[in-house]
Structure formats: C-alpha cells, structure tokens
Design brief:
10 helices; disordered N terminus
C-alpha cells in the first residue's frame, strides 16, 4: 500500500468513493449544500460573506464561490479527485480569508468581532487542511511537504484551537448578544453564556498544549452542534427566520461539520492523553 493510500484510521472505499471518516462525509456534503444554496439564491452563502457591495465583478464572485463549494465538496468524495479538491478548497479559503477577513485585524486590531469572524474561517480551513493532509498525493508531498502529513494536521489543529479562543472571547465581549440566544426554557442565560465562553477558551488552550486535546475537540464540536440544534433549528422549524438568522444557521452547521473533521483527526488518541497526540498517519509527537 502506498503512503497516499494510508489516509486515516477507518477509511472506507467503495468503487471510486473514498470516505475517510464520518466527519469527512458530513463536511463534504455540507460544502455541496452551501454551493447549491449560493447558486439557487444568487447570493453569497454566509460562510463567504460579507463582501462589499461595490466589489468589482461581485455577482460573478457569488457564482464562483458557489462553484468552488459545489465542485470541491463533490470532489472530496472521490478517490481520484479528493487530493486536488482538498488542495483547491484549502487555497481558496486561505486567499478568501486573507482578502476579506484577516485584513480587518490590521484595521481594527482591538475589535474582538474581527477575530471571531476570522475564527469561523479558521475552523473551515482547519477541516480542509486535515483532509488535505490525509489525501495528499505524491505531487503534494513532494512540493508542499510542510502542508501534508503530520505537519499539516498539526497546523490544522493550531488554527482550530485559535478559533476556539476567539469564539470564547466573543462570549464575554458580546455578552449582550450571546445571552438572548440561550433557549427560553433554560434558566440563567447569562450563566450559560459565560459557561460556553469558558468552555471554548478551555478547549482552545487544551488543544494548543496537547492536554486532553481529543476530549476538548470533541466537546467543542458537540457544543457547536448543540448550539445549532437548540438555537437555530427551532427558529427554522417555526418558519420565523430572517435572512441573517438563516445565514447564522448555515455558518453554525458548517462550523459543526468542520469541527467534526478536526475531531476525527484524533481517532486512536487516548481521551485523556497528556502531551501526546495521535497524528494522521499513525505517528505521535510529544
């Protein structure tokens, strides 16, 4: 078996289809759905916005984003196209984040919201980077060695951890926006807002230092998933969603799917491992 075939623990192949993990399948399907949504609505899906109205060729960019999401999402499912699809989506997300998100950190370095926005993109980038590290072909390992294999997975995890820290801080900086989102049947909404903020911060730190990193990643993914389920799904089911709330639902689900992929990268690692992390190809680093 070649190195390129050693994708991840539990990889399943049927015909030309390759499923590396449950998170991989959900994330790829999510990108397909985002592409379809953008094409049907003729507007940027929330994961790509906001884009200035005065942006040249803005409408063409709408459909380019939809095409990238759809084509790469589909490509991630197939053995022959998984590597180039992951490579293309990773490159596009990196460029998009630098052009439309990260630059605001330089303009407004003291505004926490810009870090949260970058964090959303960082989760998606982390997920795609894990997949790219898994699926990297010979060309990728030769020319982009730093981004593949164990090193690629490490980079993805660091990006994810930094995103968790940004999310946690936003719960404190924007408590007046977070607390009202707590479902009405839960008591003490402010306490829940603080709790979820602390949980994100703790997860980010745990992943960075490699202490209980698998547990931290899985719990943070569950937290995002529960937020989607308890906050946005009931609004959607009731038919009371505004366009901005629909965008929040899309982002929340995409982040959950991305977190799932990063969590899958820890498969085989002890839940309470202290400073030892299982990597994509079965190696470990202390």
């Amino acid at each position: 078996m070649s190195t390129s075939d050693k994708v991840s623990p539990g990889v399943t192949e049927a015909g030309g289809i390759r499923i590396a993990s449950p998170g991989h399948a959900v994330f790829a399907a999510t990108m397909i759905a985002i592409g379809i949504l953008g094409a049907v609505r003729g507007s940027f899906a929330a994961v790509w916005g906001p884009v200035p109205e005065a942006m040249p060729a803005r409408e063409a960019l709408v459909y380019l984003c939809a095409l990238i999401s759809l084509a790469c999402g589909m490509g991630l499912f197939w053995r022959r196209t998984a590597a180039p699809a992951a490579r293309a989506l990773l490159a596009y997300l990196l460029v998009w984040t630098l052009v439309f998100r990260a630059r605001f950190i330089l303009v407004h370095p003291t505004v926490e919201g810009v870090y949260q926005n970058c964090g959303e993109n960082a989760v998606l980038i982390a997920a795609v980077w894990v997949l790219y590290a898994w699926f990297a072909a010979d060309w990728d390992r030769k020319h982009l060695r730093f981004a593949t294999g164990d090193q690629g997975v490490r980079i993805a995890r660091v990006l994810y951890a930094l995103a968790m820290i940004a999310f946690g801080l936003s719960h404190f900086f924007y408590l007046n926006l977070t607390a009202p989102l707590v479902p009405g049947w839960l008591p003490w909404p402010v306490a829940w807002a603080y709790f979820t903020g602390v949980a994100y911060l703790a997860a980010g730190v745990a992943i960075l230092i490699g202490v209980c990193a698998r547990l931290a990643t899985v719990l943070s993914a569950w937290q995002m998933g529960l937020f989607t389920l308890l906050v946005w799904v009931p609004l959607a089911a009731a038919g009371h969603m505004s366009p901005s709330q629909l965008g929040e639902l899309v982002v929340s689900w995409a982040l959950t799917a991305g977190a799932w992929v990063v969590a899958d990268s820890y498969r085989g690692t002890p839940w309470l491992a202290m400073g030892q992390r299982k990597l994509a190809n079965g190696g470990q680093d202390a």
